[in-house]
Write a structure and sequence with these properties.
With 257 residues, this protein is of the alpha/beta class. The protein has 2 domains: 155 residues, HAD superfamily/HAD-like (Rossmann fold, 3-Layer(aba) Sandwich); 91 residues, Hypothetical Protein, Haloacid Dehalogenase-like Hydrolase, Chain: A, domain 2 (2-Layer Sandwich), CATH 3.30.1240. The protein has 9 helices and 11 strands. The strands form 3 sheets. It has a 4-stranded parallel sheet, with no helix packed on it. A 4-stranded antiparallel sheet has the order 6-7-9-8, covered by helices on one side. The protein has a 3-stranded antiparallel sheet with strand order 3-4-5, with no helix packed on it. α4 crosses α6. The two termini are 15 Å apart.
Amino acid sequence: MKKVLSFDIDQTLNIAKTPIPPEIAELLVRCLNFYEICPISGQKFEQFLLQIVDELRKAGVTEEQLTHLHLFAAQGTQYYRYDLSAHDWEQVYNYPLAEEDVVKITTVLEQAAKKLGYWEEDKLLPGDQIIENRLSQVTFSALGQAMGTSEKYDWDPDCKKREAIVAECQKLLPDFLYEIGGTTSINVARPGMNKEFGMTHLLEELGVDKSEVLYFGDMTQPGGNDYPVVQMGVDTITVRSHEDTAYALRGILGVTE
């Protein structure tokens, strides 16, 4: 019997880098009455609040329900849960990179992208940046975080540009983990700090067995950032859009409510 529903975010709960749509928010609020809900993504904590929590509030989520929502940011290397007494989120753990590693990764990402002609700083919107320090990982977003969705989809639809950047980075700095995610992103962390790490900690923090978890993701193929969850033997539903996820959740609620 499943006790936990866990989700990737971009392309699983939403259109990349946008708030989850009202239908997903309403379905998740209903699911919170029966399951622990655990988004796990390369996104930073603040994006979880903007893309998920704010939309759940609009859908009428209660504080009691929020205690069943668990936010595993930066591929699960950071974990936040809702503190009912403080009426706010608390950080349970964080595994940050050393500052010297952040500098190394940032330098190599920029060097590789420039060498390949994929450093497009001129396309950034005001105040945005290509490389972001997310504490436990460094993320390369080719067009920044604020660029429109259609532009992001068009930049690297087959992942070939990011695969080339990763290959170049691995030559220059091989002792780190490189994962392609979202539409324009590369997440870089210490080896082992991927979604397997996050999912392992999820199981520990919630006191559940992997057989009690159902995971939803769009990049479950070998090399995708959801694939480590598949390799763990966690039951996984591969989706291509939030519409697929909504369809599955309606089916789950149909036999649960």
